[in-house]
Amino acid sequence: xxxxxxxxxxxxxxxxxxxxxxxxxxxxxxxxxxxxxxxxxxxxxxxxxxxxxxxxxxxxxxxxxxxxxxxxxxxxxxxxxxxxxxxxxxxxxxxxxxxxxxxxxxxxxxxxxxxxxxxxxxxxxxxxxxxxxxxxxxxxxxxxxxxxxxxxxxxxxxxxxxxxxxxxxxxxxxxxxxxxxxxxxxxxxxxxxxxxxxxxxxxxxxxxxxxxxxxxxxxxxxxxxxxxxxxxxxxxxxxxxxxxxxxxxxxxxxxxxxxxxxxxxxxxxxxxxxxxxxxxxxxxxxxxxxxxxxxxxxxxxxxxxxxxxxxxxxxxxxxxxxxxxxxxxxxxxxxx
Length: 336
Ligand SMILES: NC(=O)c1ccc[n+]([C@@H]2O[C@H](COP(=O)([O-])OP(=O)(O)OC[C@H]3O[C@@H](n4cnc5c(N)ncnc54)[C@H](OP(=O)(O)O)[C@@H]3O)[C@@H](O)[C@H]2O)c1
Description:
The protein is α/β, with parallel strands linked by helices. It has helices at 14-25, 75-87, 129-145, 163-177, 209-222, 256-263, 283-286, 317-333; strands spanning 4-9, 30-37, 45-48, 51-54, 56-57, 68-71, 91-94, 123-125, 147-155, 196-197, 228-232, 234-235, 242-250, 269-271, 292-300, 303-313. The chain folds into 2 domains: 4-126 and 320-333, NAD(P)-binding Rossmann-like Domain (Rossmann fold, 3-Layer(aba) Sandwich); 131-314, 2-Layer Sandwich (Dihydrodipicolinate Reductase, domain 2), CATH 3.30.360.10. The strands form 4 sheets. Strands 5-2-1-6-7-8 form a 6-stranded parallel beta sheet, sandwiched between helices. It has a 6-stranded mixed beta sheet with strand order 11-9-13-16-15-14. Strands 3-4 form a two-stranded antiparallel sheet. The two termini are 15 Å apart. NADP nicotinamide-adenine-dinucleotide phosphate is lined by residues 10-16, 37-38, 40-41, 58, 72-75, 77, 95-96, 129, 159-160, 162-164, 315-316, 319-320.
């Protein structure tokens, strides 16, 4: 099997670290690995699969002889460096929002639209984490009954805002338990023992950037501009894994058994729906796993074509690094 020279851009970050874990776990065919971050991390040592690597400062010249770049260093870094990587002949799978809604750039969830991978012109965008966690379990329902409208409320973990945000949740928890006032450095509000509306810019219409991403990206991935999405995104004091309460309206009348059976065993989905034991998806059980957990399946008593459900998924894995590596695996079987 062909092996690839891979660069991980943003390797010291929450997603970057997960890239390394997943490349090793899934035995990605690596020839050479290059680790890139900012000048702050240059020279630091990282061990991977029994060998020691030195982190290099990322720059326009970092991508010579690189086949694949797994990128997660933020939107502005991607806007600057992705064109350089493409020019050097690499494929970039980009985790930032820089290219997601560019019509020339495929936006891919392998369980949903893998065929879009081969339309790339050097970069493939990985969708927003809340969008991936929402759409993987909704896609089997969409194929069964055709979803027209989605209302979503998210419960997003601290690590969704990066490694420093995760540390802030831990630090504030200790501070509060010790009777000291919590220090806010990353989030605009106290995250420990609290929750608040997502910390992204709020637009004139009242939706925040995170919600706009979910709306636009869903339409692009499902190739359906008429699909309605109404999200409310909330940050909660959970370290890892996002959860979402979802309500969907479908076109076709279907039974609970049908919904349950399309979800049970669907790729990337695990049904956790035990009413007797009151046992449903939890972020703690989704953490470090590959599947999106789905349960609390209920028909809307006021609308026979309305369905409510609850999902939890590890946003650092399926919401970011795992989804990107899955894209790379499909590409690697037929690199172009
Ligand atoms: N966290 C998630 O759940 C998640 C999910 C999906 C997508 N994403 C997206 O993935 C990206 C990274 O997120 P994260 O959570 O991993 O953030 P993070 O923990 O803050 O890590 C950021 C990474 O970017 C690097 N970086 C910053 N400025 C740089 C520069 N000028 N040149 C090169 N590298 C630079 C940092 O390196 P230093 O350590 O050297 O500063 C670090 O490796 C963001 O665009 C985010 O929106 C995150």
